[in-house]
Amino acid sequence: MDRGGSPRIARAEAELDREGALVVTGPPGIGKSALLDALAERAADRGGTVHRLRSQLPDRGVPFALVADLLLGVERRHLERLPAPQRDAVEQVLRHEAPSDGGPDPLGVRLALGAVLKAAAPALIVLDDVHWADPASAAALACVQALSTAVVAACPDPGGAPEFLYGSPQFTPPPLAVDEVAALLTGEGLPARLAGRVHRCGGGNPRITLDIARAVAALPRPPHPLDELPVPERVHAMARRRLDDVGPPVRRVLLTAALADRPTHALLRRSAGRDVEEELRAAARAGLVTTEGNELRFTAEVFASQLTDDSSWAERAAAHRSLAGAVTDPVGATRHRALATDDIDARLADELEAAATTARTRGDRGRAAELALLAARRTPAALNQQAAVVRRFVTAADDAGRAGRVDLARRAAAEVLDHSTDAGERVRALLAILDAAGQALDDLDEVFARAADEAAGDPALLAAVQLRLAWKANLCDGDPLRARGAAARAAVLAGRAGDAKTSVLALTMQARLERILGDPHAEATLERALGAAIPGEPVGVRNQPRYLRIRHDLFDDRLERARDGLLALLPVVERSGETEDLVEVLRSLAETETRAGRCAAALRYADWVLRITAEAGISPGPSWYSAAFAEAAGGSFERALAFAGRGARASEEEHDQVFLSRNLHVLGLVQLVTGSAADAVEQLLRVRAAETAQQVADPSLLRWPGDLAEALAVSGRGVEAEQLIEQYAGVARELGRDSTLGALDRARGVGLT
């Protein structure tokens, strides 16, 4: 099976057909053998004769071992027709006769091989692990390309192919993209939402992907989005073998690269104090690293993690010391100096805290969280330092929550709960875990319960907890009525506590839910939120009133105003370092550009969203929806269906009811426009059921009613279509949703024709 899909096969097959030979190269697990299997299967389907052969290391010393395997697959009648000298050579190769002195006649073997291949033409010889082929067989096979016989061979290194394949075109199967990893995972019955993390770990290597998938499948239950991904020993062993193959000098340079933040060739030269290009070229040839621009990247995270796991503390400390003197950024230098020692040092802790502040100002919340965590752990344990320790752990938790770094948020929160008895600090730490979780708030009921318990009696803390409960009730539980109640309680509690920031965020959430529920007070509530000043740094642009105002502009087709507002917000969220904010603004830009007909821009924003989602490991359902929506309008229907299907599965896995409906809507819409009206009806009825269950009353938020009515009309279910049109036309008129009325009128027109 070609794990990468048919485009790879088509490109390789075209090259093979054009040149008559092809050498497939690439690291272990990249899919060389799978590609050979696919090419062999296609050749057989066209009626050709296929000889599928694999060499092994012991074969190198056995003359004609590979030819013997080929001849064993030839019909006996072809061998019997050979002239006696050629037949004798074949019989000796097959050990049907004892070899003569000096072994089988090489010319007789070559002529016999040519004759049997010519009789079976057209033929394809498929040679796996051809670098282990014995020299005698390689010499005999040199004749085949003149006999209407194509050859496709696989070896890890292009230089390892036999001489007769020199000059043949080479093809390296590219790594799987994130969406291809998602397709592979769902094909194995596993959660699509794991695709980003699996892709980062394995770099798109199909074998690593499958091994991790099988490790996940062996778990008692699928991992929660916040759980660590299981990496089986087989993957560790593979990474170890490939790193061992390049030797200690290369591994030392790569360890430094693994510990560096965005390593470059220049940084590694400065760190080593010498030229390291030879080591880096060896690592690149081994498929361990690539260079993009001036930056060195590991092809898979597992190689970097294996290097650090297998190194000693002294080796890591030495690498960090060399990096501290080589980096040009003071923040990076402070980080490396701290990681080069275990010393408890008040001065170093202060420097780390200052570095965290700088990173935060730059918008690098993840780095700020790491530095604040280091600062807390380097702070002396003296009684007069305990407040500083806790403050630094709390700050680390806050930064991790805003960066979507669940791993750091959990570590920092655990330290706060161990060190602090202050309810405010303990609740902030727990809320950081919830904030880092993004859309994946399901199964975090224990964290919610503990936060509510710690907040008891404090209106400000309770308001913060109620606000997150409102987010969860809407996203995960699909209950906007309950969510509105929680948001309203949060607003009241925050007002009582004099917490203007939480009050504004709660009013914004209340307005969002009132719009969903068709409550006419939604605009007035939003105006109240917009009219209140937020003191200090705002928490989460996506939860602020000005962003909700932009969303309302989008819903109501004020597209230019929405676009202008989003473009103004884009640099703000890029500076803030909040991954979820950046993703949300980019998703809205993709949706706005799609509705405005600027499809190239929409696809560009959607691609940006997909990259960030994969790198950050956040919930993929919303990003796959944005990609599906953009592809449906200006890209590929096939890709739109694939993204929407994966987005629906991921949203179901995370109990994200909001984006389950949205992904199903795109599925139905694409099926409708591609002529599968019955399938479209099925998907859009699921959307209707989900939106009804979620009590969504405003039809402008997700414009499925017109699409379902059109699908029903095309399917010959005109009465149902007319009933649906009448039902939602009344709602749209009452709420003043002209765009919905237009879509319903179009559906009625389809029914009439």
TrEMBL record:
The entry's cellular-component GO terms read: cytoplasm
Record-annotated Orc1-like AAA ATPase domain positions: 18-147
* Keywords attached to this entry: ATP-binding, Nucleotide-binding
Task: Name the domain of life this protein comes from.
Answer: Bacteria
The record's GO molecular-function terms, alphabetically, read: adenylate cyclase activity; ATP binding
Keyword DNA-binding carried by entry: no
Q: Which InterPro entries match?
A: AAA_16 (IPR041664), P-loop_NTPase (IPR027417), TPR-like_helical_dom_sf (IPR011990)
Q: What is the lineage of its organism?
A: Bacteria, Bacillati, Actinomycetota, Actinomycetes, Kitasatosporales
The record's PANTHER family line, in alphabetical order, gives: TESTICULAR SOLUBLE ADENYLYL CYCLASE, TRANSCRIPTIONAL ACTIVATOR DOMAIN
Question: What is the protein's name according to its record?
Answer: ATP-binding protein
Q: Which organism is it from?
A: Streptomyces mesophilus
